[in-house]
Design goal:
The protein is mainly alpha-helical and 146 residues long. The protein has a single domain, classed as Arc Repressor Mutant, subunit A. A hairpin with a 7-residue loop joins strand 2 and strand 3. Helix 2 crosses helix 5 and helix 3 packs across helix 4.
Length: 146
């Protein structure tokens, strides 16, 4: 195998892991764990959604998401309801207490994201998103064919 190729792949994967590690540190700074942060941030940004949508979007195990939801519900930060068409699937919603709980973290994340956009610019951000999406698609296809 070509050494340059190997190091490039290692560098990409290391960068992705370091980005996630930075987000883990941000979550700790606000005394919340990473998975709780992801769930609350998603609800804050996107509104109500199902546990399955969270699992699919973030590639998290169903049990992990369920444990987080139960803890967040017990803390009063999220609630759920059932739709008229599906009495089995819980639709998650952020509570007022949850909004208070996550708002400082979200403001911090928004500020960081704004800084990143200002430094990189819209063109680079778009290119990065496109490349990472393509990279992810190739990984999924490659793993599926194993």
């Amino acid at each position: 195998m070509d050494k340059t190729y190997t190091h490039s792949m290692i560098d990409i994967n290391m960068s992705v892991n370091q980005i996630r590690g930075s987000l883990v540190r941000l979550a700790k700074k606000y005394d919340i764990n990473y998975h709780e942060m992801v769930l609350m941030y998603h609800l804050y940004r996107n509104g109500d959604c199902t546990q399955k949508q969270i699992c699919d979007y973030y590639l998290l195990p169903k049990q992990t998401v369920n444990n987080i939801v139960m803890a967040m519900k017990d803390a009063g930060n999220v609630d759920w309801y059932f739709t008229a068409t599906n009495k089995k699937e819980k639709v998650l919603t952020i509570t007022e207490k949850g909004l208070d709980y996550i708002s400082n973290l979200v403001l911090s994340m928004n500020s960081t994201e704004e800084t990143i956009e200002n430094i990189l610019g819209a063109e680079k951000i778009t290119a990065l998103v496109d490349l990472l999406s393509e990279y992810n698609s190739i990984i999924k296809a490659s793993i599926a064919s194993l």
